[in-house]
Design a protein that fits this description.
Blueprint (H helix, E strand, L loop, with lengths): L1 H10 L3 H12 L8 H12 L5 H13 L4 H44 L3 H29 L3 H15 L4 H15 L20 H19 L1 H15 L8 H12 L5 H13 L7 H33 L3 H5 L2 H27 L5 H15 L4 H15 L1
Helix pairs in contact: 2-5, 3-4, 3-5, 4-5, 5-13, 6-12, 6-15, 6-16, 6-17, 7-8, 7-15, 8-15, 9-10, 10-11, 10-13, 12-13, 16-17
Length: 391
């Protein structure tokens, strides 16, 4: 009897238990998408909230839709276990440590970034960021570029982005070309979800509250409104995981709006790698430097909100969508385009660095280490130590 009660408690965890479990996991969530494996292990093997098949379906979903994969997987687990409330508890718990760490680092950066030792550290980190983005482009290429049609899509995206065409427009063009080029792409087999989940009515409430919030910012503080809508839009188009937000952020923040220069944003991206959680937490850094604590909070909520809404809204229909030929063609086109976008943004980032031999050695060394599957955190920490000595 007690065993049955324990099993039921595991399958229907309290919201507090979901929050604290993901909070502990989020505090050590270094490596971005790599954390998905640890989330699955906790939910399936340790807590028994989900079965293996349901967890695999969640991974497929979170790798398909735009947004930070690990954050979305936490929302998916919570949603399957306790509905929208569980999704919110898991999502917030997993992302809260990254937000707090980035807020603290942003505040320290704003006060100390002119100190010689800090300048040396960030000079090295900027060089490491180039290696990180180049490795991301290579990783995307290995998984997405499989034939000459994929190559065409990637090259077109790179050329358009190089001509400073809006990345969101580039993504739309890639989606259209995907429908045209991949008309013979085989379909995935239909899959029936382990747990039937209906679209929550509370999603409409979340949409309504979001609309009210954006309207309030529009009339009360136009700068915060611009920041919020930009971050919201970036997450909506970040197909391929959180790293896909990097070229969008760079284009919009540095090149279009000129809210900060390239090297400063590179510093923020570097801190996004040092902190736990997805690299999209760089939004917190941008918001804080522009508008203080409130700006950091608004940017963070805005850049994660679409991911949360998409997960709870699309779960009931995802299995059907995966068998749609148009959906799969669009997705293939978009993922190929991000190879071109990341390749071009690597060049943009590199052009913002005053290259010398120490920086070149740090970049090449970091790139080789990443190719050898070294942990990103160790690459950043060792690179930071070397930067203090040689730069």
């Amino acid at each position: 009897m007690k065993d049955l009660e324990c099993q039921q408690a595991e399958q229907h965890p309290s919201l507090t238990h979901l929050f604290t479990s993901f909070l502990r996991l989020g505090a050590t969530a270094f490596g971005g998408p790599a954390m998905v494996a640890y989330i699955r292990k906790m939910a399936v093997e340790q807590k028994h909230w989900l079965d293996e098949k349901t967890a695999r379906d969640g991974i497929a979903l979170c790798q398909t839709i735009p947004g930070a994969t690990a954050m979305q997987m936490s929302a998916y687990i919570g949603f399957r276990a306790r509905g929208v409330g569980g999704a919110a508890a898991s999502f917030i718990g997993f992302g809260l440590p990254a937000f707090l760490f980035m807020m603290i680092l942003s505040a320290l950066y704003a006060r100390t970034h002119t100190l010689p030792s800090v300048v040396s550290i960030f000079n090295g980190l900027q060089a490491i960021v180039v290696a990180l983005v180049a490795n991301a482009a290579l990783s995307f290429g290995r998984t997405s570029i499989k034939n000459w049609k994929n190559v065409i899509n990637a090259i077109i995206a790179a050329l358009l982005f190089g001509l400073k065409v809006n990345p969101i427009l580039v993504i739309v063009i890639a989606a259209i070309s995907g429908v045209i080029l991949y008309h013979k792409q085989p379909l995935l087999p239909a899959v029936s979800p382990a747990n039937k989940v209906h679209a929550p009515k509370s999603l409409l409430l979340i949409v309504l509250v979001t609309a009210i919030g954006f309207t309030a910012f529009y009339f009360l503080d136009r700068k915060l409104f611009d920041l919020a809508t930009l971050m919201f839009r970036i997450d909506l188009f970040a197909f391929g995981g959180g790293f896909a937000s990097v070229p969008l952020m760079f284009h919009e923040v540095v090149e279009v709006r000129r809210w900060m220069d390239g090297p400063t944003l590179l510093n923020g991206i570097a801190m996004g790698q040092v902190t736990p959680g997805p690299i999209v937490i760089t939004a917190t850094f941008i918001g804080y430097l522009l508008h203080g604590f409130l700006g950091g909070l608004v940017a963070t909520v805005s850049v994660f909100l679409p991911s949360f809404m998409i997960v709870i809204g699309i779960v009931p229909y995802f299995d059907r969508m995966r068998t749609s030929p148009y959906f799969n063609r669009v997705l293939t086109g978009i993922l190929c385009s991000f190879v071109g976008l990341l390749l071009t943004v690597t060049i943009h980032f590199a052009s913002n660095i005053p290259w010398d031999l120490p920086r070149l050695v740090i970049t090449v060394g970091a790139f080789i280490a990443l190719l050898k599957k070294a942990d990103i955190l160790w690459v950043v920490l060792i690179g930071t130590g070397i930067s203090l000595i040689v730069l």
